From TrEMBL:
This is Solute carrier family 15 member 4. It is found in: Membrane. The chain crosses the membrane at residues 63-81, 87-107, 119-138, 150-169, 190-212, 218-238, 305-323, 343-365, 386-403, 440-459, 471-495, 515-534. Keywords: Membrane, Peptide transport, Protein transport, Transmembrane, Transmembrane helix, Transport. It comes from the Eukaryota. Gene3D superfamilies: MFS general substrate transporter like domains. GO terms for molecular function: transmembrane transporter activity. Belongs to the major facilitator superfamily. Proton-dependent oligopeptide transporter (POT/PTR) (TC 2.A.17) family. It comes from Holothuria leucospilota (Black long sea cucumber). SUPFAM superfamilies: MFS general substrate transporter.
Length: 581
């Protein structure tokens, strides 16, 4: 059960209950004096226990998810006795579904259940799904046939996908709303550490848990994530009396769709009509203050969402490059020298360099880089940080292409060897696999700037009534990036095969992996140019201060507006110049 905070805490939060007629305020500007310090750290705020609890919930959830997905293909082929293509399809479908469901999880939280209830309910579903996996990992031939195991396995993955979807879209915003009144710095710091805990969880999964699954048994390897998500449930309840929790705002999507339709049709209006009222965009025709039939806040929310979506669209190709770590980078690593003295380096261990650079960089940027830039008067905005991450991701695939060219040149000179991995034998270059460290590290560094800031951007620029949906849409770009990568491989192979030289054949030594990397780099450069144009046109909503109105019984009044932060709260966006982007 959701518990609201004590009165003394509520008075210091962003929830201000007033009865104000917006039309009485000039230009729709509402003044609210609430002086705050942007440099307050949540570590010193007195809310550390609540925030740490939420961070550990995310750690446990990510540890559970990656413990299940990390060896999914191996489990399918060795326990469920599927063929490799079927196992790969199951893995892709599970990952894709897990990143599509957050949109619905966010919608449920925003409109019906609230964030706390959605997270808790999703965690319970998650636990049931995770608990099924160790049960079907035993060799119960007399009780469970292979067919029965496959059936329960499908149910398990479906429950896990829905569970993670309900948690992922809400736990970040839920944690951030505990700190909204502490200022921009506290929110930014929260999302930095939020991502740090994500990578601790994934690091444990990809090292210790995956080792247990491969070297001991899948029963124990799946029991660990089941316990992990159970602990997450307990942690969520541990601080339930201290959470700042907002009730659901009700469905705003219907009005937003209608406002969008009005905006699309209003382009046909005469110029005289446009000049006769206070119209700054075609959507303003729908405002009640301009003679329309929709509350001004719904129109502003619609405009806010439509500004966000192009930025999100530029993330899709970024995630396509990110996903190369588990696909083409892995294939390249298998054909590099994996021996170090007498020790064979597992190819997958290079993913730890990605996590390691993230774990090292986040404290540096959070405690040193960002504060210093602010002291020096350098405005390193959210969009600038995202652009920096995109550049680093582009450099990663460029370096991968250079390494691939060098790898093949060394093999042509006769410096190659036969390398045994499990039951397969590869012709590998004498070049050490450690040369891949820079490309993995650059992806990790790019996440610190692009992915973390993307979470912060999705939270700070979204209407309060649609926080979960907007966060779900941001997470959706990850799944779309995976699908775009798969589609790109099919297109490239079809064209290159028709030209007589397939770029990505079954054996990469016979193809042109370097061309594919350079293609990704070229596409990302074009994507970055598009991003520069889109971001130069973007109108920032003052961070953490989007007004959200809910109609009272008296439709002429607004009864419950939420200021997320800031001394001055505006019902219209504040536009930054291109130089401030």
């Amino acid at each position: 059960m959701t518990t609201m905070p004590d009165t003394n805490l509520t008075e210091s939060t962003h929830l201000l209950e007033k009865s104000t007629d917006v039309s009485d305020k000039e230009d729709g500007v509402i003044e609210e004096v609430a002086p705050q310090d942007d440099n307050i750290s949540f570590w010193k705020s007195g809310r550390t226990s609540v925030v740490i609890c939420i961070l550990f919930i995310e750690l446990c959830e990510r540890m559970t998810f990656y413990s299940i997905s990390g060896n999914l293909v191996l489990f399918c082929t060795s326990v469920l006795l599927t063929d490799s293509p079927t196992a790969a399809t199951i893995s892709l479908a599970f990952t894709g579904t897990s990143y599509f469901v957050p949109v619905f999880g966010g919608y449920i939280a925003d409109t019906v259940a609230g964030k706390f209830n959605t997270i808790y309910g999703s965690a319970l579903i998650y636990f049931v799904g995770a608990a099924i996996l160790p049960l079907i990992s035993f060799d119960y031939i007399r009780v469970f046939s292979v067919g029965a195991k496959r059936g329960f396995f499908g149910v398990s993955l479906l429950l896990v996908a829905f569970g993670t979807g309900g948690i992922k879209s809400n736990v970040g915003p839920f944690g951030a709303q505990q700190l909204e009144d502490l200022g921009d710095g506290a929110i930014r710091s929260f999302f930095n550490w939020f991502y740090w805990f994500i990578n601790v969880g994934s690091g444990i999964a990809f090292s210790a848990v995956v080792y247990i699954q491969q070297e001991i048994s899948f029963f124990w390897g799946f029991l660990v994530p089941s316990i992990s998500i159970f602990i997450a449930n307990g942690l969520l309840l541990l601080q339930r009396k201290k959470y700042i929790n907002h009730p659901p705002e009700g469905s705003a999507l219907t009005n937003i769709v209608k406002v969008t339709a009005v905006g699309a049709c209003s382009c046909c209006r005469k110029r005289e009509t446009r000049e006769s009222v206070n119209i700054q965009s075609r959507f303003d025709y729908a405002k009640e203050s301009n003679g329309g039939k929709y509350p001004d806040c719904d129109v502003e929310s619609t405009k806010s969402i439509l500004r966000i979506l192009p930025i999100f669209g530029c993330f899709v190709l970024y995630w396509t490059i990110y996903n190369q770590m588990s696909s083409t980078y892995f294939l390249q690593g298998e054909r590099l020298h994996l021996k170090y003295n007498d020790f064979t380096i597992p190819v997958a261990v290079l993913n730890l360099f990605n996590s390691a650079i993230i774990l090292m960089l986040i404290p540096i940027v959070d405690r040193f880089l960002y504060p210093k830039l602010e002291q020096w008067g350098i405005n390193f905005t959210q969009l600038k940080r995202i652009g920096t991450g995109m550049i680093l991701a582009t450099l990663s695939v460029v370096i991968a292409a250079i390494i691939e060219i060098q790898r093949k040149n060394i093999m042509r000179d006769g410096h190659y060897l036969q390398q045994n991995l499990s039951t397969e034998v590869f012709n590998a270059s004498d070049l050490s696999v450690m040369v891949q460290i820079p490309q993995f590290a650059l992806i990790g560094a790019s996440e610190v700037f692009a992915s973390i800031t993307g979470l912060e951007f999705a939270y700070s620029q979204s209407p309060l009534a649609l926080q979960g949906v907007i966060m779900g849409l941001f997470l959706l770009t990850t799944g779309l990036g995976s699908y775009v990568g798969s589609l790109l491989v099919l297109i490239v192979n079809s064209i290159s095969e028709a030209a007589g030289s397939e770029w990505l054949p079954d054996e990469p030594n016979d193809g042109h992996l370097e061309y594919f990397f350079l293609l990704l780099a070229g596409l990302m450069i074009l994507n970055f140019c598009l991003y520069l144009w889109v971001s130069s046109k973007y109108e920032y909503v003052q961070p953490y201060s989007i007004l959200n109105f809910s109609e009272s019984e008296d439709r002429g009044r607004t009864t419950d507006y939420h200021t997320r932060k800031k001394p001055r709260v505006h019902s219209k966006v504040e536009t930054l110049s291109e130089s401030e982007m």
